[in-house]
Amino acid sequence: MRMKKTLRLATILSAGLMISQPLYAAESSERFVFVGYGDVKYESADVAGTDAFSARFVPIFLFSLNDKMHVEAELEVGLNADGETETELEYADIHYFLNDNTTITAGKFLLPFGQFSANWHPSWINRSIWTPGIYGAHGSSQAMDPMLPILSDVGVAAQQVYQVGSAKVFLDVFMTNGPRSEAEHDEEEVDDDHDIALARLFSPAASIDLDADEDEHGEAFPEVEFEATSSDNNSNKAFGGRIAVALLPSIEIGTSYYQGAYDENGQLDIKANGVDINLISTHAILRGEYIRTETDAFVERDHEDVIDSFSRNGWFLQGTFFIGHVFDGLGSTEIVIEHAQTKKVEEAERWMVGVNYWLDPRSVIKVGYEDTDVVDGPDDKRFAVQFSYGF
Amino acid sequence: MMKNQLTVTIFVLFATLLTSLHVSSTEPLSGAELINNNCARCHNSRPIQEFSMSEWKVIMPHMREKAHLTGAEVQAILEFMEIATTPAQAMNVKEVVNLAADPKEVLTRYGCQGCHQVQGAGGTLGPSLDNVISEKGRAFFLRKVKEPQFNNSSSAMPQMPITDDELEALAEFLSSK
Questions:
Q1: Which residues, in sequence order, are CB contacts of A98 under 8 Å at separation 6+?
Q2: Out of 3.90.1150.200, 1.10.10.10, 3.40.30.10, 1.10.760.10, which CATH number does the structure's domain B88-175 have?
Q3: Sites in chain A below the pLDDT cut of 50
Q4: pTM of structure
Q5: Least CA distance to A270: which residue of chain B?
Q6: Between chains, do A362 and B46 touch, taking CB under 8 Å as contact?
Q7: Does domain A106-390 have CATH number 2.30.42?
Q8: B111 vs chain A: nearest CA distance in angstroms?
């Protein structure tokens, strides 16, 4: 907790220092660039009964130390429902370009698991206003329970790129501090629950009732926290990676793996497998991911605690159609359709439709409607308009 | 724990196997083609003129890791960006200015075929240029190359310092077929 605050402060301070850099260095500087993105959203959500504007500002600081070393940091600044400013460190890492096709990364980084968290989540990139149903809310509450939160953690990673005939193969491996059990430090988190990304997993041992009351969470659900910390609660590191094959410019298919112990004794694991696709043509983009998780939990059997594992799975598929290419008068208008499902525990299904209008390649006005059908819980419908820009 | 180690071992083996598969491409890398192949995979391709060259030099390492580019590819992209943003006069290529009449050289110099097909060869980020003049007119062509965003606000086509001579030569070449 303390560590976290200190880390955050240090980042903001160093970020501040970095911003001030170009003021004296001006044009002669080829080392620093200040980029990022931001968005403003109006959302009306049925179940939550909310109807509000929200805004985010996400500065990115890029620093080229020399030809081999590159530093990057991203902060997310937003306002929560109580009007308080929330700042989150999305990543702060250093890349070391070991040779032509190998990159080593150290620090806090977005885990190369699937493509959404590392590559598609910024709002000027994501064609939908919302995160896909299988992911965490990333700044707004949502009706679907995430399979995995956005995964950003502290550790090291290595990346390799290979040219195999006309295909490219991308390999990423990482090792990080990993998740920890939510119950272990419940009290510490009372004033800080906004940035806890949770993967909520249901333990059927306690009761067969799938409708276990949400309020009891912590008892009925072993909750695994993925928030990155600078400490590790057990000696086991989490590790994983991704292998992808790309036939550029149109196809990329990847498969990912994640494994980490989340309890203090390192006995309980969470494991995840994923498959992602990205198909790009001149008239459409089709993206999707499938994720399957296995979470260990202690289960009482014959009055004895034994380890059992529970699996969940979910997927999303998002199609973007550039209708402006077909009907000349529509300029850069596109239509987005997305479907997501989570199965087994916390079953739900979601449809999203949206229309995007691009003002230039990095600024977009999105209008979207989302309809979520939760099997054991209240359904959700929401409508939103978002203006998003990269800079 | 055993399982942990097994998985790590498999990962490492796999990584080593992939290293041995490495086949380096012998073709020279075209920066425009690399932009065509990579820069619209995740987001709309950002026009080159949006940033200065000194900014691109700091942004490209960021994209190198995201897009899984090699160092040589990044270099080729930066070289193309340099050409695309530097007026021909400012470069040490006086002959090119004078001999601008060769349309093939113009196509190569500005990497048009990195993103467009001409006579069946080239990239697909933009439409084929074979029939653009017969279908949309010479005036459209001239304006489009000078001001790529005039009719499509999210166009990824870079605004290049192409000279009037070069442009005329290209228009001649593309309408002669």
A1: A68, A104
A2: 1.10.760.10
A3: 1-3, 5-7, 9-28, 138-140, 184-221
A4: 0.80
A5: B4
A6: yes
A7: no
A8: 16
